[in-house]
Design goal:
globular, three-stranded antiparallel β-sheet, 39% helix, two-stranded antiparallel ribbon, alpha+beta
């Protein structure tokens, strides 16, 4: 099964974190890739519940800091809640993101 290397960077391009997201299907939308990333980030956090959550989506009742998101009270997070909270504005209107449109266009071109 395919895997993706997730690499978070600062705006200047300095790597902050790099990790592997394994077990992906052969074809995936950008939306589903983000959901899988959020699920993995929450699983990593829940396994140790460190002081800071370092992930794509800010948990409810958490403060953004330079070190990540600091929860007012340490607790296990639910990835489904995080994924729902991380929906992009275009998702509310049911429109695909530019990444999804681009990926679909490339797939369709390859099928011709």
């Amino acid at each position: 099964m395919p895997a993706v290397t997730v690499r978070d960077e600062t705006t200047s391009g300095r790597a902050i974190d790099t990790w592997l997201l394994p077990g992906l299907p052969e074809s995936i939308t950008a939306r589903e890739l983000v959901r899988l990333r959020v699920r993995e980030e929450v699983a990593r956090y829940n396994s140790a519940t460190p002081e800071y959550f370092r992930g794509l989506v800010q948990p409810i009742d958490a403060e953004a800091t330079l070190n990540g998101y600091r929860l007012r009270q340490r607790r296990k997070l639910r990835w489904e809640v995080q994924a729902q909270a991380g929906r992009l504005p275009h998702d509310v209107h049911g429109q695909a993101s530019g990444v999804e449109r681009s990926a679909r266009t490339e797939q369709e071109a390859g099928q011709r």
